């Protein structure tokens, strides 16, 4: 009964505060605004990073990161930044800088150990000389493992009130109050930084969001979510995995502490489902019961987006079953293990990845759940981000990649002797939001309606519309976007019911290549695909359709020099009609835009170091992975649009 009351409260609060956020399918005319000088009625793409760690995250701090939120936001706007390692005098031995500033960013430090990290690094706080903190400072690499294993790595214990909790370490005091109180200092600084660097002028150059990461990883299986607030009105204490060790407990806490009538809005964005060991998209709640419609509604309301790609690999598809077996693009930046044991112990100890932990599988399961419950719990749009633990948002270029720390390689004490990161990791991607202007209100609304797409780091401009009456010649229109909104729904939307029998949905995809800038070259476009998933007779299916360009255009890379060759496209556009549409089958559709191949970050560093795999015995040990045949030497940068859904009549 208590569970139902909590979910009822959550939905009631949500209904009061967020109805305006969910009603717009994206087809309605956008509201007028006088806020920004650069306002676009048909919306414009804004590039950002919604997954950034600084010194307030324990795993970043124990790796020597001293960059805070203020420096991170200045870096996102183009300022050069010194990063670890540092000399004894505190001078950085490396610097890094974006070639192109971002439009928006959110610092999302791990909330679970805010207080513990603050106490162990601030000699003025009680507890600084505790046994735990002396261990923290004497052996930071080991402390990273122990603090996380004894906190975010545990399973919640039941409380007398029906909730769950995780005990804190003894130095946090009775009930963990010392660490909870200490957590307020970094949380306030995160808010102050977001306010200081949010451009409220009419130029609207840069937008920040107050946020944090809810970091649950029971037994090393990832359930992480980034929590993004719509405004400066946020809870006094961020609800972490320690107090709310299940996603539904997090949503309940947010519903009670982030009240719309006070100006607070929030959403949560799961990431790294590829490392969740079967947990992220399980179809049972925390009590082991099948999902209820209330649960599905709460999940869909709180989680309109998922991170499909970042530093620790892609979470789109594994490609081990069904039509996915023939989808060669599922091999893109695929980690070879299923949870954090793979990176912290060994891949063999972790086990191979699981098909059900990837978003394509979740989207199909969501259609099946919708048939059972009436609501789709896995109705996710897509974004990308970096997951940097160096305080460097948007540092996602393959060239000059310094690593991102965190679960990757550490440069706390010395410069990396070889590759700057583990061979399986990568620079990560970007989040792109279609919005009228660069403000919190406009960008947050784009996230809510899922008018968003992910890139693997480059900046192609991609639009995606679906509808029953989209003109076949839409690509020739000078008003592509206006006609798309008028005749259909944008990415993230829902197709209305078919206007008649025999009608098939059409989808229009337009892509412009990333022109690149000096020091950040981008390759031309190669081809566009539409990925479809559907349910037929209770069975899940998928298919990949080629709709534009030429995947066999002969573009290639000389991996000895990283020189690229071959023709490509400056732009691609196509209107595609689903030839296999069945109005009785619920389905989703998303577009995947691929560029010509280029050198992977690791290959660039191997070439720069003069490594030749022709004589393996001559390859320095620190560059051994240059010749690791398990990982590709090239990468095909890409974009994934959020899906458009079709719901069959019951």
Quick rundown:
The chain is α+β, with helices and mostly antiparallel strands. The strands form seven sheets. Strands 1, 4, 7, 8, 9, 13, 14, 18, 19, 23, 26 and 27 form a twelve-stranded mixed beta sheet that branches. A four-stranded antiparallel beta sheet has the order 16-15-17-22, with helices on one face. Strands 11-10-12 form a three-stranded mixed beta sheet, with no helix packed on it.
Overview of this structure, please?
Helices cover 23% and strands 22% of the residues. It has 650 residues and is an alpha+beta fold. The strands form seven sheets. Strands 1, 4, 7, 8, 9, 13, 14, 18, 19, 23, 26 and 27 form a twelve-stranded mixed beta sheet that branches. A hairpin with a 2-residue loop joins β10 and β11. The longest helix is centred in the first third of the chain and has 22 residues, at 2-23. It is globular and about 75 Å long. The model is unreliable at 1-27 (pLDDT under 50).
